[in-house]
Amino acid sequence: MSLSARRVTLPAITPIVLQKRVIKVYSEDETSRALEVPSDITARDVCQLLILKNHYIDDHSWTLFEHLPHIGLERTIEDHELVIEVLSNWGMEEENKLYFRKNYAKYEFFKNPMYFFPEHMVSFATETNGEISPTQILQMFLSSSTYPEIHGFLHAKEQGKKSWKKIYFLLRRSGLYFSTKGTSKEPRHLQFFSEFGNSDIYVSLAGKKKHGAPTNYGFCFKPNKAGGPRDLKMLCAEEEQSRTCWVTAIRLLKYGMQLYQNYMHPYQGRSGCSSQSISPMRSISENSLVAMDFSGQKSRVIENPTEALSVAVEEGLAWRKKGCLRLGTHGSPTASSQSSATNMAIHRSQPWFHHKISRDEAQRLIIQQGLVDGVFLVRDSQSNPKTFVLSMSHGQKIKHFQIIPVEDDGEMFHTLDDGHTRFTDLIQLVEFYQLNKGVLPCKLKHYCARIAL
């Protein structure tokens, strides 16, 4: 029989269809959005979907958080993690939530490692020649052959008890250890506390209230699989910088180069998303816009960058004045007093303005979105009803500056420096300090905003 006459029966090839699930994601104002997603979708892909659906600008700071209210814990879900796997570890009766918000500090340690690894907390297993820079420390974390040791005192919650004990801890690639004898690092004095492979690192949101922690800077190890509060290994640092150092080092030891790849290639998702198909970046035409001058009989291209910037600022101020006029007139000419009042209220529609929130709430919002230099918000002052407060982050600390109103020739202005620099409204003030450091410790860079889904 010829080969052409033979019949061969092949098995039917069925396409692989990924099972879809519906997940619910919450924003800070507790609005939510349901998404139908494939089972292999990553946290980064979920963020991309929400960015596109809500027309947000993608600055790579959008983050998915796992929130566990019954035990007061929260963690960043890493960009590469599978969201359905995270949900599969939740108990049936737990009211856990996924939150979507900005986290400017997510990869800040790659940009400014000097803020994350204080000298007094870092040592090395082997002898080193000369000083080791924070950048070299970071490279050691990503290396499989060498590693730095993070050490220091932490408060640890004793298993099955309500009491906390201050103990000397040592973080190595193999896990977290504590010393049974003071600050000794001898092997016979080190006792194993926790590993990273089957646990996730969480930050405590209400450690003092829920767990009787001695400070507000708590974090803990929680097993991947569902478990009760007894399975938690609770720790507490003396200050935010210390907690940030421990948590960052544990993330680096747990995920290593994967974190660096997430930082360098934010669009490499598991579910086939690519930068070409989903990145809401500016188009070529928008990036190639040029400044034009139409004031004369003939239009001309403004080639001088300084002149172009000056024209842009003037145009912006002109539009703002027109906007103030529209807000205040309602069809009638606006008196100077009405215009001044409008200038004093124009900021209320801005995303960085948070009206009547407390100092503690302002600090909570800034910490939530990352203690990165220049994260800020503006709010009403609680102590003085006629003033405002600029709350901002610098050097992993939150600072508050009072914005004082000053009157000159019947017009009201805002100032941060006792009247040396004056602004007709808060928008001008914020825009100025976004471009100039002035009396502030750094420029304003990222505003805290409550977004709705």
TrEMBL record:
GO biological-process terms attached to the record: signal transduction
Compartments (UniProt record): Cytoplasm; Endosome membrane
SUPFAM superfamilies membership: PH domain-like, SH2 domain, Ubiquitin-like
Superkingdom field: Eukaryota
GO cellular component: a single term: endosome membrane
Alphabetical UniProt keywords: Acetylation, Cytoplasm, Endosome, Membrane, Phosphoprotein, Receptor, SH2 domain
Residue ranges constituting the Ras-associating domain according to the UniProt record: 19-105
Ranges where the PH domain occurs: 147-255
Gene3D superfamilies referenced in this protein's UniProt entry, alphabetically: Phosphatidylinositol 3-kinase Catalytic Subunit, Chain A, domain 1, Pleckstrin-homology domain (PH domain)/Phosphotyrosine-binding domain (PTB), SH2 domain
Domain SH2: 352-448
Membrane topology field: Peripheral membrane protein
Pfam families in alphabetical order: BPS (PF08947), PH (PF00169), RA_2 (PF21989), SH2 (PF00017)
PANTHER family in alphabetical order: GROWTH FACTOR RECEPTOR-BOUND PROTEIN, GROWTH FACTOR RECEPTOR-BOUND PROTEIN 14
Family per similarity comment: Belongs to the GRB7/10/14 family.
Protein task: Adapter protein which modulates coupling of cell surface receptor kinases with specific signaling pathways. Binds to, and suppresses signals from, the activated insulin receptor (INSR). Potent inhibitor of insulin-stimulated MAPK3 phosphorylation. Plays a critical role regulating PDPK1 membrane translocation in response to insulin stimulation and serves as an adapter protein to recruit PDPK1 to activated insulin receptor, thus promoting PKB/AKT1 phosphorylation and transduction of the insulin signal.
Name by which UniProt lists this protein: Growth factor receptor-bound protein 14
Organism of provenance: Sus scrofa (Pig)
